[in-house]
Amino acid sequence: MVCGTANSANLGVTVHVEDDRVLGTVLLDTRHAGAPGFAHGGALAAIMDDLLGQVLIPLDRPGVTATMTVDFHAPALLGRTMDLEAWCERVDGRKLHMRGEIRDGETVVASGSALFIHVDVSHWETSGHALPPHWAGWGATADSKP
Ligand SMILES: CCCCCCCCCCCCCCCC(=O)SCCNC(=O)CCNC(=O)[C@H](O)C(C)(C)COP(=O)(O)OP(=O)(O)OC[C@H]1O[C@@H](n2cnc3c(N)ncnc32)[C@H](O)[C@@H]1OP(=O)(O)O
């Protein structure tokens, strides 16, 4: 629902990995309004969760959000391309401490921190739905990483 191109209701986030960091952009519009002209905080929180979750890819650790805090520092205006950045601050066993920012130019609109828990890919098999084929092998190098 955030960056999945197969979902026509996605929030239009695009991301890529650079040196273990996830960088990206998002352009919110009236569909994502809270107050007129401003992005809904829940949309920003969803973007933050997904952004921090994308760090699981360079970490090569499948995982889920256990807890997340989003700090809203400045109003997020609709119709502006905002920059996204996320990284892993610390790995402590299965606990993955992520951090990220949503910025409008030099202004940090929101910052986030989350605890993700490393799980086996079989975690998602309990839904009964088939996993995306490209998830096969996700986490294969996790045991060899600190
Ligand atoms: C090449 C491949 C490409 C693949 C490409 C894939 C795309 C990749 C992008 C994904 C981007 C999407 C990002 C969205 C991410 C979601 O939206 S995930 C969905 C929302 N989250 C969930 O559904 C999680 C639901 N919760 C759970 O399933 C379970 O509670 C958990 C989190 C797995 C933990 O359960 P558990 O495995 O039984 O572990 P448990 O022993 O309870 O906890 C382990 C440790 O963590 C601590 N802990 C657990 N929960 C908490 C908490 N809430 N607060 C503090 N500590 C906690 C425990 O205290 C424990 O600590 P220790 O005692 O070891 O010190």
TrEMBL record:
<keyword id="KW-1003">Cell membrane</keyword>
<keyword id="KW-0966">Cell projection</keyword>
<keyword id="KW-0963">Cytoplasm</keyword>
<protein>
    <recommendedName>
        <fullName>Acyl-coenzyme A thioesterase THEM4</fullName>
        <ecNumber>3.1.2.2</ecNumber>
    </recommendedName>
</protein>
<keyword id="KW-0378">Hydrolase</keyword>
<dbReference type="InterPro" id="IPR029069">
    <property type="entry name" value="HotDog_dom_sf"/>
</dbReference>
<dbReference type="Pfam" id="PF03061">
    <property type="entry name" value="4HBT"/>
</dbReference>
<feature type="domain" description="Thioesterase">
    <location>
        <begin position="37"/>
        <end position="109"/>
    </location>
</feature>
<keyword id="KW-0472">Membrane</keyword>
<keyword id="KW-0053">Apoptosis</keyword>
<dbReference type="InterPro" id="IPR006683">
    <property type="entry name" value="Thioestr_dom"/>
</dbReference>
<keyword id="KW-0809">Transit peptide</keyword>
<keyword id="KW-0276">Fatty acid metabolism</keyword>
<dbReference type="InterPro" id="IPR052365">
    <property type="entry name" value="THEM4/THEM5_acyl-CoA_thioest"/>
</dbReference>
<comment type="similarity">
    <text>Belongs to the THEM4/THEM5 thioesterase family.</text>
</comment>
<keyword id="KW-0443">Lipid metabolism</keyword>
